[in-house]
Specification:
There is one protein chain. With about 220 residues, this protein is α/β, with parallel strands linked by helices. The protein folds into 2 domains: about 5-120, 3-Layer(aba) Sandwich (Rossmann fold); about 130-224, Arc Repressor Mutant, subunit A (Orthogonal Bundle). About 40% of the residues lie in helices and about 20% in strands. It has helices spanning about 10-25, 35-45, 60-70, 85-90, 105-120, 155-165, 175-185, 190-205; strands at about 5, 25-30, 50, 55, 60, 75-80, 95-100, 130-135, 135-140, 145, 150-155, 215, 220-224. It has a 5-stranded parallel β-sheet with strand order 2-1-3-6-7, sandwiched between helices. The two termini are about 20 Å apart. Pfam families: Response_reg, Trans_reg_C. This is Stage 0 sporulation protein A homolog. It comes from Faecalicatena orotica.
Length: about 220
């Protein structure tokens, strides 16, 4: 399992990134004390660093240079700065990639996997667009579920729900987490709508021969 260090001063974004990465099977460290950051980064010994540019008392671009003097760990800037010159500056200061907020979770995970691969490391999910659990495959690119040669198309809501379940296969995903994720991705959904979508996904799984894939854990949520 590979370790990612998150250097982000916004506590909500920091917590969101930590949850996203842990769900993608990475080990995650976060920095909350923004003094002696380089020393803290060395102590964590991460395989990759996610770095914001606007940090308390220090510019992330300069910090990247300081990190580069001590470590060869790949760095991805995750920042609200979104013009071409900002991205160029990030690359010139030693960054390996640059992604702007608000980011889309699958895109961020794909960028992380690409940087790990390019730097000679391999992440826990080699292909962030395809998830396979038992005989069933979720294809994020064409929004389909397939099993033993049969496939079913998914709506936008169903795709996000399946992504949450397949990316955390074997783990319980609560209804609250599913609703929060859908809302965060501008898919407006309530508790009743979630139940309807789960029922539809189960129907599609049944049609392709995987009818018992989703397990309901009463009072906890769902898992595959």
């Amino acid at each position: 399992m590979y370790r990612i260090l998150v250097i982000e001063d916004d506590p909500d974004i920091r917590a969101e990134l930590k949850l996203l990465l842990e769900n993608a099977l990475y080990e995650v460290d976060v920095i909350e004390d923004f003094t002696q950051i380089v020393s803290q980064a060395e102590a964590c010994a991460p395989d990759l660093i996610l770095l914001d540019i606007q940090l308390p008392g220090i510019n992330g671009l300069s910090l990247c240079q300081d990190i580069r003097r001590k470590m060869d760990t790949p760095v991805i800037f995750v920042t609200s700065f979104n013009n071409a010159m900002d991205e160029l500056n990030g690359m010139m200061m030693g960054g390996d990639d640059y992604i702007t907020k608000p980011y889309h979770a699958p895109v961020l995970l794909a960028r992380i996997a690409a940087v790990l691969k390019r730097t000679g490391k391999k992440g826990p999910q080699e292909d962030p667009y395809h998830f396979i659990w038992k005989d069933c495959e979720l294809n994020m690119l064409d929004a389909t579920l397939s099993c033993r040669g049969r496939s079913a198309e998914l709506t936008k809501n169903e795709l996000r729900i399946c992504y949450n379940l397949f990316s955390r296969a074997g783990q319980i995903v609560s209804r609250e987490e599913l609703i929060d994720d859908l809302w965060d991705n501008q898919i407006f959904i309530d508790d009743n709508t979630l139940s309807v979508n789960i029922t539809r996904i189960r129907g599609k799984l049944k049609d392709i021969g995987a009818g018992n894939m989703i397990e309901t854990r009463r009072g906890q949520g769902y898992r595959i």
